[in-house]
């Protein structure tokens, strides 16, 4: 069972990276939080969850133990598989998710792609007490920073990324159209669009 990888990021895409560890390349699925921070040709350490199926062995990587722990908690919910759990953490960091569960904020959870009202309520019902035991301290309220919105630089790449993450094209286009400031990278534009979609 692989629990951690230390190596060099050889390449990265919107949902996975290749980590070279002593000449062996490991394909690791990562949430957007890691995608934003990991850079090609840079050293990285990832906390790994190894998911074994009859036909595949998949590695899921996280930059913090808290993120990995939240991923494992999500997998304990019936009907939530690794891809859905990773998708949840791609749109809401583990601290914001913890706050939603503390505060029983089903409305905000149901804004996540692939998570409807019933699934949001089930997440709260089944994870609220587990989260309180793991994180007994009071949650920190997460504030979403207001964005001045973007121009068309990186627009197509960000739109494609949003569609790959499960948003409808119309929904993704609407979020991007509400951005007006210029962005230096697709990752920055994607972050801003995701903040719009989570409001």
Top keywords for this entry?
single chain, 199 residues, alpha+beta, OB fold (Dihydrolipoamide Acetyltransferase, E2P), DNA polymerase, domain 1, Helicase, Ruva Protein, domain 3, five-stranded mixed barrel, 9 helices, 19% strand
- What is the general shape? globular
* CATH architecture group name of the largest domain: Orthogonal Bundle
Q: What is the N-to-C order of secondary-structure elements (H for helix, E for strand)?
A: EEEHEEHHHHHHHH
Give me the Rg, rounded. Answer: 17 Å
Task: Tell me the number of helical segments per DSSP (H or I, 4 or more residues long).
Answer: 9
* Fraction of residues in H or I helices: 40-55%
Poorly predicted regions are 138-152
Oligomer: single chain
Q: How would you characterize the overall build of this protein?
A:
- The protein is an alpha+beta fold and 199 residues long.
- The protein is built from 9 helices and 5 strands.
- Strands 1-2-3-5-4 form a 5-stranded mixed barrel.
- Strand 2 and strand 3 form a beta hairpin.
- Helix 2 crosses helix 3, helix 7 crosses helix 8 and helix 8 packs across helix 9.
- The protein is globular and about 45 Å long.
Secondary-structure map:
Elements (H helix, E strand, L loop, with lengths): L3 E9 L3 E6 L2 E6 L2 H6 L5 E10 L4 E6 L2 H11 L6 H10 L2 H10 L2 H4 L7 H18 L20 H10 L4 H9 L8 H13 L1
Parallel strand pairs: 3-5
Antiparallel strand pairs: 1-2, 1-4, 2-3, 4-5
Helix pairs in contact: 2-3, 4-6, 7-8, 7-9, 8-9
């Amino acid at each position: 069972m692989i629990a951690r990888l230390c190596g060099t990021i050889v390449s990265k895409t919107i949902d996975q990276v290749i980590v070279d560890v002593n000449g062996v390349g490991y394909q690791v699925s990562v949430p957007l939080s890691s995608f934003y921070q990991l850079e090609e040709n840079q050293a990285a350490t990832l906390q790994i969850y190894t998911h074994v199926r009859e036909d595949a062995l998949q590695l899921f990587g996280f930059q913090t133990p808290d993120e990995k722990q939240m991923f494992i908690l999500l997998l304990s919910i019936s009907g939530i598989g690794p891809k859905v759990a990773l998708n949840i953490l791609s749109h809401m960091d583990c601290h914001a998710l913890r706050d939603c569960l503390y505060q029983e904020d089903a409305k905000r959870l149901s804004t996540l792609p692939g998570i409807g009202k019933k699934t949001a309520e089930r997440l709260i019902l089944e994870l609220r007490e587990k989260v309180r035991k793991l994180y007994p301290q009071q949650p920190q309220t997460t504030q979403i920073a207001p964005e001045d919105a973007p121009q068309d630089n990186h627009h197509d790449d960000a739109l494609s990324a949003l569609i790959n993450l499960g948003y409808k094209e119309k929904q993704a286009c609407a979020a991007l159209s509400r951005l007006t400031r210029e962005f230096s990278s697709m990752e920055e534009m994607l972050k801003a669009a995701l903040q719009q979609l989570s409001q």
